[in-house]
Amino acid sequence: MKDTFKHQGLRQQLVNILKNKGITDANVLKAIGKIPRHLFMDSSFLDHAYQDKAFPIGADQTISQPYTVAFQSELLKIKSGDKILEIGTGSGYQTAVLCELGAKVYSIERQNELFKKTSKFLPKLGYRAKKLVFGDGYIGLEEEAPFDGVIVTAGAPFVPKPLLSQLKIGGKLVIPVGHDVQVMTMFTRKGQKEFEQEEFGEFRFVPLLEDKN
Questions:
Q1: Stretch 142-166: mean pLDDT, rounded?
Q2: 86: which of 106, 144, 188, 193 is 20 to 30 A away, CA to CA?
Q3: What is the active site of this protein (predicted)?
Q4: Is residue 208 a part of any domain in this protein?
């Protein structure tokens, strides 16, 4: 679990790449600059850890591209103490970013292999989510709702209704919607049944699967 000066230097280069791509939130950039992304990846991919690319992590899942992680995190406009639901824990990299931003993180993972691995791994790095759950992201986490924000880290063919209903008034759902290519979409809850929808261009994600495995 080494984090060397070389790794730190590579992270700063990554932060500069993200700035050049339009990420402006200082807290998000600081989080990316601090988290040892190479530790979230298979050692054979270490050389790629600080490239702005997605990489496989097992169970047909990927560790998201840093730009995508930064982009989604920036859209949520997280304040310290915000209660955030993450759909798709995966490697835990996005979870760590949310923790660095001061969020109280509740995260759901449907792949048991990843859930077990990440549940053990995150605390070793000092990142403690409020709750890591092995379950179905499509149904959210009703018992912990409402949330200030919900972030979905896989491509959803449609917007799961429970995720909208579990938002606070003023809360935001950031979700990539679509089949082969997804459109990054943000819903802001304006009232009991009223939502504002905004779109932020195309991204590619692994699919959000129902149920658990």
A1: 96
A2: 193
A3: 64
A4: no
Note the pLDDT tens digit of each residue in 104-135. Answer: 999 999 999 899 999 999 999 999 999 999 99
Instruction: Identify whether 141 is part of a domain.
Output: yes
Catalytic residues: 64
What pTM does this model have?
0.94
**Structure tokens of 81?**
């103490």
pLDDT at 59 over 70: no
Q: Which domain holds residue 36?
A: 5-203
Least confident of 22-26, 40-44, 89-93, 209-213: 209-213
pLDDT over 90 percentage in the chain: 79
Cβ atoms of 50 and 42 within 8 Å: the answer is no
Determine, yes or no, domain membership for 213: no
Q: Please list the residues that pair with 87 across neighbouring strands.
A: 108, 152
Interacting residues of 80 by C-beta distance below 8 A, sequence separation 6+:
101, 102, 103
- For residues 128 and 122, give the distance between their C-alpha atoms in angstroms, rounded to a whole number: 7
Give the list of residues 6+ apart from residue 16 with CB closer than 8 angstroms, or none: none
DSSP lists the bridge partners of residue 107 as 86, 132
CATH number at residue 30: 3.40.50.150
CB of 114 closer than 8 Å to CB of 58: yes
Total structural domains within the chain: 1
